[in-house]
Amino acid sequence: MTTPAVLLFPGQGTEAVGMAAGWEAHAAWRDTLEAAEIHSGYPLRHLMAGGPLEDLRFQRHAPCAVLAHSVGLFRTWRQAGMPVPVAAAGHSMGFYSVLVAAGVVPLEAALDLLTAVEDLSQEAFGERAMGMAFVIGVAELEVRQALLAHPGLALSNRNGQAQFTISGPTADLEQLVAILQPSAFKVGLLPVKHPLHGPHMVALLPELARRMAKVTPMEPAFPLISHFDGRMLTTGSMAWDEGLASIALPVDWPAVVARLNGLGAPLAECGHGSQLSGLTRWADRKLQVTSLQPAPEYG
Questions:
Q1: CB contact at 8 A, 1 and 263
Q2: Domains of the chain
Q3: How many whole angstroms separate alpha carbon 37 and alpha carbon 159?
Q4: Residue 49: exposed, middle, or buried by beta-carbon count in 10 A (0-12, 13-18, 19+)?
Q5: What's the gap between Cα 164 and its chain centre?
Q6: How far apart, in whole angstroms, are the C-alpha atoms of residue 164 and residue 90?
Q7: How far apart are CA 13 and CA 110, in angstroms?
Q8: pTM for this model (two decimals)
Q9: What is the pLDDT of residues 141-169, one digit of tens each?
Q10: Among candidates 261, 218, 212, which has minimal Cα distance to 237?
Q11: Are residues 275 and 91 in contact, defined by beta-carbon separation less than 8 angstroms?
Q12: Which residue stretches of the chain have pLDDT < 70?
């Protein structure tokens, strides 16, 4: 890739056995994964290569694997000559990958942030089953009307005009899925154990900020795009504050897409799979997103 692009970093849910195939030969990727394994204590490469999938998707493993893999891809492509990005956006916890790639915080700080979110969520929700559900092919008005009967649930992601996620108690999510099933193209529970991007997470923010208070954000090497409202985050403090708050802020991908249109640069997904390629084209059919998942031929 020789033209400066806007990079899109996917979040949890894109992990898959075999996601790292072909990357072990690249020193920048390998060094990133080794650092992540040492700091987290998780056998990320083993899980990414051979699974089993349920272990890779374990709540504490999956975000770390996605983060380390995306950052490793970015560093390898930069080492191979990819220009500094015009800007970058991350979907959900993909924003943590952007924070590291842009140099706002080191990889270890982002891993610590993931750990803090997991610890605080377990403390806050205890044995209460919480999570998220996805809804595809249902108009937003119908989704919001269905939510009126479930005040414990919140619309947490607007991924497109008819593609959403809902967060809250699992029992309520299961009822909502049953209600929307007849009119939905696809609907179901996500492999996530916390009610991310919704009001249930707000109470965690003060303690999360306290635990991460020793982190001093640096100025980003390129601007970051808020997945909450599409704002350009141009300073380290803006980006880090957004990262901390992001667990309780809903995701509005159409707002990100509107910003992408305004930037007028090529788009590339920096991670495994085509999650953000699909979401971006869902919001605007004119936009094409290439992938950095295939390793460069040199580097």
A1: no
A2: 6-124+199-291 (3.40.366.10), 127-189 (3.30.70.250)
A3: 31
A4: middle
A5: 15
A6: 17
A7: 18
A8: 0.93
A9: 999 999 999 999 999 999 988 999 999 99
A10: 218
A11: yes
A12: 298-299
